[in-house]
Amino acid sequence: GESININFEDLKSIPKKYYTWKEGFGLVNDSVQIGTSAQELQKLYPEIVSVDKNGYLSVSYDRLSIIALAAIDELHKENEIIKERLRVLEDKS
Questions:
Q1: Distance of CA 51 to CAs 28, 36, 38, 72, Å?
Q2: What is the pLDDT of residues 58-77, one digit of tens each?
Q3: What pTM was computed for the model?
């Protein structure tokens, strides 16, 4: 299949935050959660955001993990390039 496009500037703009559920979700648990903005994430990766019958958006965090893995792969590639450039510079001196 097609590789996942990772744009780090876009990913940085996605809020990572603590939140509590708004009233109306039928939940009595008001404990603090961690998550991100489904609205913002939907702009980048709509396939990992679903909409329920009431129009509420939710993030599929299990699918979000593959985005994180793809980002790790991309960072690893960049890190290897930087290490090689550093090695070449050190060999010249």
A1: 21, 15, 10, 28
A2: 999 999 999 999 999 999 99
A3: 0.76
